[in-house]
Every structure is written in C-alpha cells, then in structure tokens.
Amino acid sequence: MPAARIRSWKSVALATSAVLVGIVLPAATATPASATTTAYDNTYYASAIGKTGTALKSSLHSIIDGHTTISYSAVWNALKVTDQDPNNTNNVKLLYSGISRSKSLNGGNSGNWNREHVWAQSHGDFGTSAGPGTDLHHLRPEDVTVNAIRGNLDFDNGGSSFTNSGGSLYDSNSFEPRDAVKGDVARMILYMTVRYEGDDGWPNLEPNDSVNNGGTRYHGRLSVLKAWNDEDPPDSFEERRNDLIYSNYQGNRNPFIDHPEWVEAIW
C-alpha cells in the first residue's frame, strides 16, 4: 500500500510594487515548498533527515544509488503500470500532451506512444542501456510526434503551441510542459542529477541555468525547474508512480516527490 504522507503547502504569496502613477496589481509568485513528513523518514531517508546543501545531496545519492535496473524493452510494460490512466485502466496518460491513449498503441508510428526520456539521452550520451537510459523515474509515455518535437530541448518558459500539445509550448531552444506536469518534470530532472554522480560508469549529470545544452551532460534551466517544483506540488498520480517504481521495479524512490522542499535545500 502507498505510504501515508502529511503535506502542508504554503499559500501562494502576493507581491505588490508601487509606481509613480499608481499601484501595480498583485502578481502571484510561487513560494518554496513547505516541509513534509513521510513514513520513510525514519527508515529509508533516516541518514538524510536534517541535512542541507551538498551534505543532503550526497546522502540522497547514497540512498537512491545502486537501484535495480531493467532492460529498455521491459520499460514498455512497466510504463503501462506506472502511468496507467486512473480513469481508464486500458490506457496510459501521456506526459506532455495529457492525452489518454490505449496501452496497446505503443510503438514508433504516428498515433503511437513511445518512451520519452525527460532527461534527454544526448545530455550525457547514455543512450538506452540499462542505467540512466532505462531509469523509470524519468521515463514517461508520450505521443511519438510530440516526443520528436521535444527532442533534446532544455526546459524553460515560453514558446508556441503545436498539435496535441495539451498546453505545452516549444521554441528553437526550449520546451515548456503543460502546467499540470511542470513539477513532475522538475522533480524528474533533479532526481537524475542526484542519482547519477559519475561514480558508477555513467556521466555525472548536473543541472545548470542554461538552454542549448545539446550533447553536454547538463540540463536546464535550474531556476525555472525550481519554480515549477513550487508551483506544481506532487499529486496522487506522481506519488502512486513513485511507490510503484520503488516496490515493483527499481527499489529506489525519487526523494523530491516525497520531500519537494529538498529542492530548495540543495539548490
């Protein structure tokens, strides 16, 4: 059974600024995620509780490192479980587009869904080998065409809509996911930076505040990802997914789903 969680989210802060001719209307800004507690704090996360900065990052790496890997072909069936549409058990929910699509329509043709690497494969050149290339904590189902549009773009705000976008946007150097999954994307990217530190034969993956990272081991933009983490807290879909990956497949968790406030504590 999924572990019980107690969450206390701060209300959105209102900022106002005065100008010579009057007062600007209040603008909504995200506040850092409030502290959470989980049933794993005294066991799984025991060595991390109370730490911040590099000490917290190092402790979390030790906790989530060495997970059980699966093959790239096994990812197909795993995603049919982890990303099952809660309103239709015959379908999966596509990440960027939000479309519910039949589980049987997995493949590489137009109208199919395929395996999207949220941390783009070329950002570290890890391909689809067992390890970062098959890590379910950043693999999600997506429409083939939408997946191709995202490509290896870094994440940032702004851009234009496209067919089946679901509210996602893109431009020449960045991709903005729909509002409902912005936090999901942020927590997946930051999970990868903690899990892969270059000590197990895979690249040391790191966030930065840039776009156009291309074939480097960096992914951006960190400032935007931090804001998305605050604006879009973990929901039941994301939490269920984390539980299933932990219990059924990899034996490790995404700590930023359990403790989204750790994003600010580290970065």
TrEMBL record:
Pfam families the record matches: Endonuclease_1 (PF04231)
GO molecular function: endonuclease activity
Superkingdom of this protein's organism: Bacteria
Keyword field contains Hydrolase: yes
Keywords: Endonuclease, Hydrolase, Nuclease, Signal
Signal peptide: 1-35
Name this protein carries in UniProt: Endonuclease
